[in-house]
Amino acid sequence: MIHSVDLVMWTKNGATTLPEVLGSIDQVVPKEVIHKRVIVDDNSTDNTREIAKKFGWTVVFNDGNGISDGANTALKHVESDFFISFEQDLVLAQDWWQKIPKYLSNPKTAVASGIRLPNQPSVVKAIQEYSMERNRQDINETAAFLYGKTLDNTIYKTSVIKKIGGFPKITISAGVDNMLAKKISAANFEWKVDYNVCSFHLRKNLRQELAHNYWYG
Predict the structure, then answer these.
(1) Nearest to 91 by CA among 21, 14, 13, 8
(2) Cα torsion angle, 184, 186, 190, 195, sign
(3) Are 99 and 114 in contact (CB under 8 A)?
(4) Which of 99, 212, 73, 91 is CA-nearest to residue 155?
């Protein structure tokens, strides 16, 4: 059982979604196990930092730019043996804490996460649900290796992430999660994805979801 964990998040102009996102974390992750809450802000021009502080998070500035630098900046502030990373637009599944951290009891498992789907539009959500189900049943481990591995509802063994040199250092934000998965595998550790634990990305409409996927390639 995990008795102490640090929470980290990287933000940029997340004021629209942050109150709901931070509220969901407060509901799901037990207060008594939380050691630190750290938000790495990428020079937001809205009131992201003020909202974060209101919810009890410490705010630091990104040492660089984007997710890669933000994740490594956050790692510098981690003190617990375990830490969890979130994205600023993700509402955490109610059963996440009961189901995901337990996977790290396996000595070979260094990272664990659930899946996430857009809360709307419904047609995109349905397509992604179908893809996730097909992947969950896929007997081709190579084909399924990267699918579902993300940094937005993810718990890590701190010692392993630091041992492999932290998060991948790349100049673009797309692909940090996939490259980390490959580093974890190369170090002979596993990243467990539970396809039955589903969190939600907050989306306004189809256009926003398509723009998100285009940006990530």
Answers:
(1) 21
(2) positive
(3) yes
(4) 99
**C-alpha 158 chain-centroid distance:** 14
Q: How large is the C-alpha radius of gyration of the chain? A: 16
92 neighbors 86 (Cβ within 8 angstroms): yes
Query: 200 φ, ψ to 5°?
Result: -130, 135
Residue 127 identity: I
Per-residue pLDDT of the chain in tens (217 residues, 90 and over written 9): 799 999 999 999 999 999 999 999 999 999 999 999 999 999 999 999 999 999 999 999 999 999 999 999 999 999 999 999 999 999 999 999 999 999 999 999 999 999 998 855 454 444 455 455 555 555 445 545 666 799 999 999 999 999 999 999 998 767 899 999 999 999 999 999 998 999 998 965 444 444 444 334 4
Q: Please choose, from the candidates 193, 206, 190, 151, the residue with its C-alpha nearest in 3D space to the C-alpha of residue 173.
A: 151
Strand 58-61 relative to strand 90-91: parallel, antiparallel, unpaired? Answer: unpaired
Contacts with 47 (C-beta within 8 Å, 6 or more apart), sequence order: 15
| β strands within the chain, DSSP E | 5-11, 34-41, 58-61, 82-87, 90-91, 109-118, 153-157, 190-201
Q: Which amino acid is at 216?
A: Y
d(CA 152, CA 134): 21
Structure-token pair, residue 174: 């797309």
